[in-house]
């Protein structure tokens, strides 16, 4: 019986696996090095050649982290801020994207162009006027000062508008209107379920961005009980020297919730991205 040999284009070459292994190593090594430093001290961290085996001081340094700053409270604050921003971006950006994609109103294209152009403005330029608004509202040193400005952004609106334009046909929406559905019912019961994977990915990206944000919380938060996790890590350092072991221990503890989140939702996130890629 004659067997057919696989074509050369169908075989995955060894160098493809080598490149994938190299990319995986480049992504995972900083996390592994963070853990090594979190289990040692500053002297070990700067030693040459560097240590590649974890030490035994992790639990001691982790205890110092929790005793030096209100780290548990900071994690809770970050969960509240990042979770609210993630959900808010998923819903509000989808709602705005639906309006730009499927509704007809005067100035729609000009307004969407203005939203897209705001992505070209550096975030740092908005800090001063944003702080003035927060101060006028008496929101300085509160969590809503972090939550409200992050509930929607230009990238999320652009992302959802493009996805809704390609994933939802006008005939489905017209049929819903003929059946008597309002604009909100059409969005919530028909449009949003169809683009839920893309909205989920957007919300997860918003969660990670808010969790890792440092500059704006550093400007607006004053009290230790209001610190987010990134500001708590900054509080572990003093003005004269940096205990690398203590700082990396706090950083590793702050990274653990994101790792746990990715373990549970990583496959769904990849599926949402691929779904958006093929439909967009």
From TrEMBL:
Keywords: Cell membrane, Membrane, Transmembrane, Transmembrane helix, Transport. It is found in: Cell membrane. One of its GO terms (cellular component) is plasma membrane. It is a multi-pass membrane protein. GO terms for biological process: transmembrane transport. SUPFAM superfamilies: MetI-like (SSF161098). The keyword Cell division does not apply. It holds the Pfam family BPD_transp_1. It comes from the Bacteria. Residues 75-265 form the ABC transmembrane type-1 domain. The chain crosses the membrane at residues 12-35, 75-98, 110-131, 143-160, 187-211, 244-265. InterPro entries: MetI-like, MetI-like_sf. The keyword Translocase does not apply. Its main location: membrane. Belongs to the binding-protein-dependent transport system permease family. This is Sugar ABC transporter permease. The gene is cebG.
